[in-house]
Amino acid sequence: MKSFLVLTILLSSALAGPAVACFGPKLYLGVPEGTREAAVAAVAILYIQEKTGVETIQVSVPAGRGVAGVLEESLDMILAPSPVADLPTLLKVPGGPFLLSGRRPLDDLQFTTVAPALQNLDHLLTTEFIERLMALVEVGTPAAAARQLMMELRWI
Predict the structure, then answer these.
(1) Residues with Cβ < 8 Å from 82, sequence gap 6 or more?
(2) Burial of 134 (0-12, 13-18, 19+ CB in 10 A)
(3) What pLDDT, on a 0 to 100 scale, did the predictor assign at position 45?
(4) What's the rounded Cα separation, in Å, for the pair 92 and 79?
(5) 138, containing H or E segment
(6) 58, part of any domain
């Protein structure tokens, strides 16, 4: 009986696949290479998560390729150096980049709180904030700098 129990446990352990958690809807933000872009992405991602509960995944994109990704719907949003006529601008960072949106963040019921949250963030971002953020990024990671500064200002 003991050997049957041990065999059953071993067999079920061997056949079990990895558990994949599903914690809700996700958005995909295309981010071109660059320190400023990484820092702005960290601010936007953290703000969206804290204010809406929507997880946003940062996806590295080659320069000039992000807009096509949004138009093809392989990305939901993109950081771009300038606005694009076909894509709504959700965030205008002083000195750039611009956070442009595809269809899903605006039309999908799961994401109805994302655009208003980014509009609020848009009103908070100033040249001074970006300068302080970039100074913090020089001594740490973009995500840590964004969290530190946003907590200091009580935005999150």
Answers:
(1) 96, 98
(2) middle
(3) 98
(4) 10
(5) none
(6) yes
pLDDT of residue 66: 86
Q: Is residue 15 part of a domain?
A: no
DSSP state of 40: H
Residue 79 buriedness (CB in 10 A; 0-12 / 13-18 / 19+): buried
What is residue 105's three-state secondary structure? helix
Tally the domains of the chain. Answer: 1
Is 136 a residue whose pLDDT tops 60? Answer: yes
Average pLDDT over residues 103-115: 96
Fill in the amino acid letter for 117. A
Percentage of the chain lying above the pLDDT 90 cut? 80
Residue 130 domain-assigned (yes or no): yes
Domain hosting residue 131, numbered range: 26-152
- pLDDT cut 70: percent of the chain above it: 85
Inter-axis angle of helices 127-137 and 35-52, to 10 degrees? Answer: 110
Instruction: Note whether residue 136 is domain-resident.
Output: yes
Q: What CATH code is carried by the domain that includes residue 107?
A: 3.40.190.10
Reported in sequence order, the residue ranges of 1-156 that DSSP labels E, i.e. its strands, are 26-32, 55-61, 77-80, 89-92, 98-101
